[in-house]
Amino acid sequence: MSESETDTTTTSTWSERFFALRARGSDWGREIRGGLVTFVTISYILVLNSLIIGGDASADVTGHTLDQLQVASATALAAGVLTIAFGLVANLPFALASGLGVNSFLAVSMVREVTWPEAMGLVAINGVIIVILGATGARTAIFHAIPAALKSAITVGIGLFIAFIGLVDSGFVTRTEGGPPVQLGIGGSIATVPTLVFVITLIVIGVLVARRVPGAILIGIAVGTVIALIAEGVLHLGPSIDNPDGWHLTVPALPETIVALPDFSLVGAIDPFGAFIRLGPLGASMLLLTLVFMNFFDAMGAMTGLAKNAGLANDDSTFPRMRQAFIMEGLGAVVGGATSSSSNTVFVDSAAGIGEGARTGLASVVTGVLFLLAIFFTPLALVVPLEVGAAALVVVGAMMMAQVSDIDWGDFATALPAFLTIAAMPLTYSIANGIGIGFIAWVLIHAAAGRAKQVNWLLWVVAAGFVLFFGRGPLEVILG
Fold first, then answer.
1. Which of 83, 142, 380, 386 could share a disulfide with 368, CB 3.0–4.6 Å?
2. H or E, element range at 183
3. pLDDT greater at residue 2 or residue 319
């Protein structure tokens, strides 16, 4: 056997042992492209997380704020380490990063009652609880208790949710002043160049995907970024904070500097039990319960949808190494709290890489390595504007709609809970809310229709928990 043959055999054996590329119908090229697309699609979190939990707008109960550069460094570090670990342990093409639902809850609500170190301490405890639920099999048992129709509805709802995120981030859908909640563009028109770039990118990606061009999403993102760079170079639009017609978050421009030194001062700056001292056991427990519900069901829904989208789910919606995936996702909250980057969870945006062909943890390793490199090369990571990445999300959302055909729409006891699950996710901007509303509706309608015995007892328990979750505001007032 020649030396080249030996190298090929060794590489093939190593690939099969760790990632089972051939078994999942993939190869190194697809995984690398998929990992790159996932990173490009979610790299906005490096900017967005810093804006949400960093700066003066997110001062805690004592007036303390988190430095935005430190938040960016911690965000990239946590996402990189966790995504690599997830890829190696769970062998799934899912990326982990600071979850938008949890970080918004921290910045808008929690730190009005506790300090940032105390809030991050609760995030870490929340992660420990989720790890225990995953390791003991409790999370898997709850997963099996969910009816197949609701699992399909969760996938479809996530597809609509990420498409809606893309439409909003691009400016294609905006708020109105005193009228309907949303509108097309500005006054019903596509009135800004960034939104036009989004539309062009969306068309390019859509055409390439329809023609089954390899690397379609990545090519579309590259084309959109070039168009954005040219548009900004000619028109000098700047950020939307200064110019309403400008770019959201990232202004497309070639970076003046390539390397930026990281600052990890926030790593380890947490107080795990301070919230219990400040608020008392009951008050702190209510905050902790909210975190657990958001983290637990957001991630469960995301992983269900992504596994189905990747063709890795079985008939009962289980997927390979599910328990390991649940445990690793729980560790994401622990690491997120410990690094003060907020709870890290599976990103539904990983569907962009899956749409590019990623099917194994190798894609996650690629994404994680890029996050670690982004610690030092943040300027390069932020060249792609949010509007271009948003187009990829809309395309992937359309791909995930295929699961709607698995729902029995002729049975209204199934159809209504499924519809509420699908509709609530984009309309309430929360995966967990959609899951909770669907669970409650399923239990109530089946019980009233004389089908109570068909409902798994665990679904009753979880639905009751969601009733408490949705009523936590009045409960906190009543309980003082």
1. 83
2. strand 182-184
3. 319
Report how far apart, in Å, the C-alpha atoms of 197 and of each of 173, 235, 271, 335 are: 14, 13, 44, 36
What integer pLDDT is reported at residue 414 of this predicted model? Answer: 94
For 140-153, the DSSP string reads HHHHHHS-HHHHHH
Spatial distance between the Cα atoms of 439 and 278, rounded to a whole number of angstroms = 34
pLDDT at residue 89, rounded to an integer: 95
Contact 252, 368 (CB under 8 A): no
Given a cut of 50, whether residue 92 has pLDDT beyond it is yes
Instruction: For residue 33, give the nearest of 370, 303, 347 by alpha carbon.
Output: 370
Tens digits of residue pLDDT in 158-175: 788 888 988 988 889 888
Q: What is the pTM of this model?
A: 0.74
Q: How far apart (Å, rounded) are the C-alpha atoms in residues 443 and 244?
A: 46
**Distance between CA atoms of 293 and 433, rounded to whole angstroms?**
10
pLDDT at 317: 79
Q: Which two tokens stand for residue 169?
A: 């981030």
| Confidence at residue 187, expressed as pLDDT on a 0 to 100 scale | 83
Q: Measured between alpha carbons, how far is 90 from 108 in angstroms, rounded to an integer?
A: 33
- Selected residue with higher pLDDT from 100 and 270: 270
Contact 337, 343 (CB under 8 A): yes
Cα–Cα distance measured from residue 113 to residue 125, given in angstroms and rounded to the nearest whole number: 17
Alpha-carbon distance 127 to 332, whole Å?
7
Which whole-number Å values give the CA distances from 92 to 161, 241, 282, 363, in the listed order? 21, 38, 38, 8
Q: From residue 84, give the alpha-carbon distance in Å to each of 41, 190, 212, 361.
A: 17, 40, 29, 8
| Burial class of residue 121 in the structure, from the number of CB atoms within 10 Å of its CB (0-12 exposed, 13-18 middle, 19+ buried) | buried
Contacts of 144 (CB under 8 A, 6+ apart): 316, 318, 456
DSSP-based three-state secondary structure for 182? strand
SS3 253: coil
Crossing angle (nearest 10°) for helices 274-309 and 431-448? 80
Which residue is associated with the tokens 């289980």? 318
Label residue 347 exposed, middle or buried (CB < 10 Å: 0-12, 13-18, 19+): buried
Question: How far is the C-alpha of 177 from the C-alpha of 190, rounded, in Å?
Answer: 17
Can you tell me the distance from the alpha carbon of 382 to that of 439, in angstroms, rounded to the nearest whole number? Answer: 39
Angle between helices 100-108 and 45-53 (to 10 degrees): 20
Long-range contacts, 169-178 (Cβ 8 Å, 24+) = 169/248, 169/386, 169/387, 169/389, 169/390, 169/393, 170/194, 170/195, 170/198, 170/248, 170/386, 170/387, 170/390, 170/391, 171/195, 171/198, 171/248, 171/387, 172/198, 172/199, 172/390
Backbone dihedral angles phi then psi of residue 344, each to the nearest 5 degrees: -95, 130
